[in-house]
Structures
1.
Amino acid sequence: MREPLDPDMFDPVCPSDLAPIRFGDKWSGLIIRCLEHGPRRFSELRVPLRGISAKVLTGSLRTLERDGLVSRTAHPGPLQRVEYALTPLGRSLLGPMATACAWAEEHWDELLDAREAAAGLT
């Protein structure tokens, strides 16, 4: 059995929309990170992605599947179970995402300063 996803794996004071490098839609990068250590069920993904609605999560998963980054496997049985997993193509994004995250962390103060300066101009 897999270890459950940490409900606090994404820092709420570290909004993903601050990073200027985005992978897919607002949630795609976070979904990919949730699938990094193996397949997950829809309900498992909702734990760390508290701010996402079921409709938006479904749409993001479908887009990731359409783009070949995520696979969807339905397990038959009396209680049908569906799992999502990274494909080899999706897994190949983990390295570039780690690089982008490291860059954003290194330049976090500059990014915040730029956002605050821009907000002061409006």
Note: Strands lie at 40-41, 70-75, 81-86.
2.
Amino acid sequence: MIQKALIFGSLLGCTAVIFGAFGAHLLKKKLTSDQLQSFETGVKYQMYHAIVLLILGFNLELNASLDNCIIYAFIIGTLLFSFSIYGLVLSSANNKKIKFLGPITPLGGLFLVAGWALLIYKFAV
């Protein structure tokens, strides 16, 4: 599981840099300022949680079930939150908004909150 945290942290960090550059250079002319700001929010949260996964991967216990839950919460939350934002922004820029993605963003946010809450619990106990 720790290896998954490190792999996903690295992958999410790498793609956050790529998506950030994509947004700053290629999408700047295509998106409204609000859409670009939303896209950047997705990139920021993706990078923040990539860093968290890398730190956790180097510091958590290998077989602790709580640690596994924390890692899964951050991975699932980041994928749902950031990638639903990317999908919403890009689809609305093409006037074909994918509406089912709307409820996925807060669900991803709930997973992220759960990951942080579990981390608090781990440190408090």
Note: Residues 39 and 86 are 6 Å apart (CA to CA).
3.
Amino acid sequence: MKILIVEDEIELQQLMVEFLSKEGFLLEVAANFSEGLEKMSLYQYACILLDITLPDGSGMKLLQSLRERGDSTPVVIISAKGSIDDKVEGLNLGADDYLPKPFHLAELLARIKSAVRRHNNHVDNRVTYKNVVLVPDDRSVLVDGNVLQLNRKEFDVLYYFIIRPEKLVQKALLAESIWGDAVDQADSLNFIYSQIKNLRKKLRDYDAEVDIQAVYGVGYKLV
């Protein structure tokens, strides 16, 4: 489950990353309005933790932009602004929760889980393409009704492609989306090849009517 943290206080940002990583989440961070807007426009997240006061803009504007384009990703506002007016404004713009600073990390975790759970209860987000059905809620994959066992990254890769059928995905963009900011530490992107190779074999073994096709020198697409 991938979470975006939009927070300009670097110490708090790092504390949240360290804590939530230990809880099994994949984290991406943005330290200002511009970075937050770019990541929210390009990638899908299970939840967004959003500060209101950013160096180059308002977190409220980011929330408004997200909702205006029909994106229902759960958003938990984390802010030193604890006034009722700010809380009401955030909730009216479509925030799922509002957590004033300072807060305990255990409470933040509970708020994240609650927001994601409420979102999933209202959305049937299973994805079907050809004879493959992917269920994000329990991270399961069915091919003609038979359970296809995938590891965590194989599931994430298939999910990324199945919601973008027939669309060419650049290798670097795929790496950032699945492996997060940690991909910057990798010497190369060759690890993607082995993940996709294993995934393709499993799909073939189950007679899936989909395949991930390599586009030489560019990336991949689901066909």
Note: The radius of gyration is 18 Å.
